[in-house]
Amino acid sequence: MEFSSKLLENAVYEMSQLPGIGKRTALRLVLHLLKQPEERTEHLTNALMKLKSEVNFCKKCHNISDTELCEICANPKRDETLVCVVEDIRDVMAIENTSQYNGLYHVLGGKISPMEGVGPQDLNIVSLINKVREGGVKELIFALSSTMEGDTTNFYIYRQLEGLEVTTSTIARGISVGDELEYADEVTLGRSILNRVPFESSMKAN
Known about the structure:
Layout: H1 6-16, H2 23-35, H3 38-54, E1 56-57, E2 64-65, H4 71-74, E3 79-86, H5 89-96, E4 103-107, H6 126-133, E5 139-142, H7 148-160, E6 167-170, H8 186-194, E7 197-198, H9 199-205
Parallel strand pairs: 3-4, 3-5, 5-6
Antiparallel strand pairs: 1-2, 6-7
């Protein structure tokens, strides 16, 4: 792709580094921004800069938050004995949209993936185990995607919980194997949460 301006080329390159954005889409977005009033571009730039510099991660669940505790953890009406283990904030949003879950969350920040150099030490697993050890959590729901990496992460955490008094379950396989939670429709995802099964049973099924 030939560019008449180095500034344009640099902007397109940076935009194309975003996931799911190819060079042609990046070019279209950059040209769109060029046509907008200067203050519109400034608002976008400021929003991104503030996001990077001021965003917090909830000290209890690691969800993205504006405050020390996210709104979910700070809500006294949520069931603190029930914790849903998810990969990232997109999964929290997907499950919240079902309106079928009233417990808390624990955001791992990814999945174990040796191919990508992601090990247990790179995820928020230690804080999850400590949370269970402190008492009060009666059930952990594994809600990671039905992929090899998701199953590996579930099993690793399950083994770390041995000897601790907590029930482990996993969402029902209404979610197709290999699918990511964020792309599941709300009805299917909601039913998968409500019809969750003991984690031991899911291992036998595999």
